Every structure is written in C-alpha cells, then in structure tokens.
Amino acid sequence: MEPAPRPGERSRLSLNREASALPQEPRRFQFRSFRARILTFVVGVLLLVQGAVLLSVHAANLRGARQHVNEALELTAAAFRRSLQVREQILVEKARLLSSDFAFKQVAATRDSATIRSALENHSGRVGAQVMMLLDPAGAPLASTLALAAGDAEALGSLVARANDDEFGESSAIELLASAPYQLVIVPLFTPEPSAWIVIGFAVDDALARDLQKETHTDVTLLHSGRDGWNAFSTTLPAGPLRELEQQLPARVPDGSAIASLQIAGEQYVSWIAPIAGADAPLVAVLQRSLDDAMESFLALRGTLFVIFGLGLVVSVAFSALIAGRVTRPVAELARGARRIERGNYADPVTLAQRDELGALATSFNAMMKGLAERDRVRDLLGRVVAPEIAEELLSREIALGGEERRVSVLFTDVRGFTGLSEREEPQRLVAILNTFLTAASNAIESHGGVVEEYMGDGAKALFGAPVSHPDDAQRAVLAGLALAASLPAVNAKVAQLGAQPLAIGIGIHTGEAVAGRMGSLARLKYTVVGDTVNLASRLEGLSARYGVTIIASRAARDECPEILFRELDRVRVTGREKPVAIFEPLGLLAEADADLRERVELHREALARFRAADWEKAAAGFAQLARREPEARLHRVFLERIEALRRAPPGPDWDGTFTHREK
C-alpha cells in the first residue's frame, strides 16, 4: 500500500502530477541545448546555400563542357566528311587520268591479266593508291593489284550497278574487299566505246584516323559489323579501351548521327556515332572526346570554390558560436531558475542586465516564481488542514459545487469517555492528548491509502475510495482500523507521560455508495462524502462500546475483505435506519490466526446461531463457555444478559434475532 506524502513533499508531488498529466508526444530527436540549435540552424542554412551554389556551378560547368565537346565533335565530323570527299576527288582525278592514258588503253585491249596487273601496279605506285583493278563491262575482275576474296564480287557488282545508273558512268563507295575497307572510285574505260571499268581506291586504315586526330585532337574509330559484333578497322584508341568501345556500341546504329556518353577505361567520353556515308557494308564512325579532360579547368575552379566555402564555413561557425553564446546565456540563466523552482527553491530570482525581450521574460519569470511560491504556501497550508489528496482535489479543478456517486469505505473513530476526560484535564494537556491520538489515527489511515476528511473534536472521519480509489479500499479501511487499534498501547504510553489515564477508542467501518464532491458555498467549500453509508459507519462506531470491542464493520465491508478473519457480533437496527445490518469484529489477518482463535470464532458462531433459533439453553451454554475462556470480553455477557431477558419475556413469532438500538 502506498503511504501518503509528507507535507514538505506535497508541492513537488503536485507539480510532478501536473507534468505527468500533460499529453506525451512520440519520442523524436531533440536538441539538448538552445546554443546547439542555433549553431545547427546557421551551419545548416550556410551548408544548404553553399551546396546549392556548388551544385549550380557544377551543373553550369558540366553543361558548358558538354556543349564545348559537342561542338568539337561536330567540327571533327565535318572534317571527317571533308577528308573523305578530298580523297574521293583525288581518286576520281587519278582514275580519269588513267582512263585517258593511250598506253593503258593498249594494254587493256590485250586482255592479258598479268600485263594489265603490271600496268596497274606501276600506276598505283605513282598515284599512291592501295588498290587498282580493271573490270569487264559486267563487273568481273580482269586484273587487280589486290588478291580478292570470293565474296568481293558482290561488292564490285554493286559498285558497277551504281556507275551504270550514273549520268557520267562514275560512282564511289566504301566497300569491304578481302575483309578490309577501301574507299573506291569507278570510271569507264573508253576505247573509244566503254569497254571496261577502272577501279581505284585508298585503304581506310589507322593512318586516316591518326591524320584526323592530329587535325582535331579527337579520338577516331571506324568499325564494321560482323558476326561477332562490331570490329574496328581504323582507330586511335589503345587495345583495352577499343575492346570496351566495341562491347558498348549498340547492335543497331540509327540511320542519322547520335551523341552518347560512354564510360571507357574509367573515363566518361562524349561520343558522336554515325553510319559512314556511301558504304554498302554496315560501317560506322565513332568520334570521341573525354569529358573529364574537358572538365579539367572547371574541376580546378570547383576545388578553389571548395577552399573558399570551407574557410567561409569556419568563419561563420566561429561567429555563430559567439552570437549563440550571447543569445543563449540569458536563456541558460532562465533554465537554471526553472530548475531551482522545480527543486522548490523560490528564494533566488533570475537576474538579467538586459532591457530587450529576454529581460522582459526574466521579469515575468520572477513574477511567476512569486506566484508559485504563494500558491505552494497556500497548498502546503491547506494540506496541513485537510488531507493532501483532498487539497489536490480542491486545487486542481475549477471551483464548482457538486458531487458524484462513488463506492467508498468510511471509517469513524473517536475517544470513549471524552466528556469526562475534558472535565478532568487542563485544556493544554487535553490538546496534547488529542494530538497524540489523532496523529496515530492519521498515520494508520494514510499509511493504508486512506484520507482523513476531517477531525471532529475527539475523533476523525476517514475515506477510502474518494477522492483516490483503489480496488481493495474496504480491506484497506479494515487494516487501517486494526493498525490504529494495535497502536493504542503506544499512544497510551505517551498519554501516561502526560499524566493522564489510558484512552479507549471505538472504530466503525462501512462500505457502500455515497455522494462525494465539493460542498458548501462558492465562498467556502469542502470536499466530503454524504449519504447513508456515512451515517451507518458513524452508528457502528457508537455501538463498539456496547459490545466491548474496538472495531465494528458492516457485512458490506466484511464481504470485500477476503484476507481478514471476522467474528459476527450481532444483527442490529440502528437509529434512523429500519433495515437491519449484520455487524462484525475484525480480528486480524486470516493467515496469521492461530487454532485457538479460530476455535473461539467457531464457538461464537454456533452460539449465535442457537440464539437466533431461540434455543436459549444451548445458546447460554455456548456464551457461558466463551465467557470462561475470555473473561475480559463484554460481548459474551451482553448475550447472556439478553438471553435472561428473553426468557423472562419471550419474543413473538416474528422475532428474527435482530436487536434494535434506540440510542445513537
């Protein structure tokens, strides 16, 4: 059972209750200091702004670098197309020159393959061509400086077909001959009628790619599609990056040019990809520039910005810490003042030498502290006049009259023979005697979770179940009564030291419904309980002396105390109440009762049953036996006297064993 708080703890407990009554928010991260909050905010905003600037600069630099690379690739593509056009023009001029050469016409007229090949080799050496051949009108090779493969006839036939469709009988193309690409030109040989075709061409190899790289500073790769994917036949890339390029190219290249970003050898390349114009075979050109190289100057600028921003951040943090310290110092002083108030110290006000909003806050804080000190003085004084729980009930809500029906256990106790005691004793000593008893009563009641509602002269009225309720309020009330009865020898020892006679007390306990609430007037009110439950508890306390027992409890109270041993005393009608009530004496905890006590309780139960059955002989014998075993107990003599009276004046047929008490 929870003991009641000491008077010095009431203010702090009330503050804790008010704090615990506030709605609890879900736990989330919270700053431990206001200074940290300010620093985090300033640094966070600065980092956000700097991050936005860096991202904007980086995005602008990246766009600029890509635009620069794209423009360079467009220029390289134009240079590549011009290079092919220049080579084609040279080939056309050389082919026309050979077609008009009279000596070559004579050699061609011989139709001797070896002679023609020798003439072609001689001429190709003079013009720098890598391949020259003479075809018959149908496109079949008559002689060639290149060892042709079986599948080359199709490429040559396609070249002848385009020449036949041309107005001047000329055509050009890039074809695969002997699995190698060549830029070819075909012109007719007139003798004087067209009698053959002259084909002359340059090899499309690494030399072309290197020449273009020297001119444009761009990596160039020319590829053709085979059964196993793309294969390069002209490139400026090393072997490793070249393999990555061949693997990353899509199997199908769009008809027009396209720009793509490819990751090769750990670097990002912007790549211009397009089919090679005039090629019958699936040939593509890939022009590349490293984006990392293009970004090199921008990366240097970014590094400089990082240094500048880092220095700015350090300076900003230093100034922010200085400002935060000046701002949070008065806030920290207010927090220390709040902690002093929490500990109950209202003597030290907050002192701030400021006239701004924080200074005004400190003034209001000190005024609040004075108000809290005054409130706690009132609360503490009220807690000494009434029970702390009642004080909380009166102070915690808006002042209003009214009550609610509650199930309560009410305990009354007072000193027997107080009138004679007050006549014998001096006022000062009488007050000391009463305070000794009432202190013991308060301790017994409050230690079992009860509330002393009021002191009434030589007695007290206690509540169990209002304003604070427990599931075992009835048992708490009975245990409090037993504790008070057990403390009586110690009380009488103190009373003896005061020079007074020992005290005898009575206790009455009843459990039932009652109206509990604030009653009186708006100008002066009190928390109390009223109703039949209260009246009956008071009547039971008055009956205790008649039966010679210290405590009397009603059946309603007994039924809610399964751990306590009771002895039924009687069934009575009390003044102001027609309905009879069974009354019981609590004897102690059931688990601690010895065999002798249990036997006496059982003998009393049997004797009481004989009495209610009007079996006077056996009832008298039972009570007489109990009187011999408990000679100091008045209870058994009461029933023996009552039996004698009933023998002299037998009751009527409607008698049920109930005894009516006419006096309070």
Write up this protein:
By secondary structure, the chain is an alpha+beta fold. It folds into three domains: 235 residues, PAS domain (Beta-Lactamase, 2-Layer Sandwich); 195 residues, Nucleotide cyclase, GGDEF domain (Alpha-Beta Plaits, 2-Layer Sandwich), CATH 3.30.70; 70 residues, no CATH class. Strands 11, 12, 13, 14, 15, 16, 17, 18 and 19 form a nine-stranded mixed sheet that branches. The protein has a five-stranded antiparallel sheet with strand order 2-1-5-4-3, sandwiched between helices. A hairpin with a 5-residue loop joins β1 and β2. α2 runs antiparallel to α9, α9 packs parallel to α10 and α10 packs across α11.
What is the first-to-last residue Cα distance? 34 Å
How confident is the prediction overall: mean pLDDT?
A: 83
The CATH topology assignment of the largest domain is Beta-Lactamase
How many alpha or pi helices? 19
Poorly predicted regions? 2-20
Largest sheet: 9 strands, mixed
Supply the helix-strand structural class: alpha+beta
What's the name of the CATH homologous superfamily of the largest domain? PAS domain
- Give the CATH class of the largest domain: Alpha Beta
Please identify, by name, the CATH architecture of the largest domain: 2-Layer Sandwich
Radius of gyration from the alpha-carbon trace, in angstroms: 59 Å
The number of distinct β-strands equals 19
Percent in strands: 15-25%
Integer count of domains: 3
| Percent helix | 40-55%
Morphology call: rod-shaped
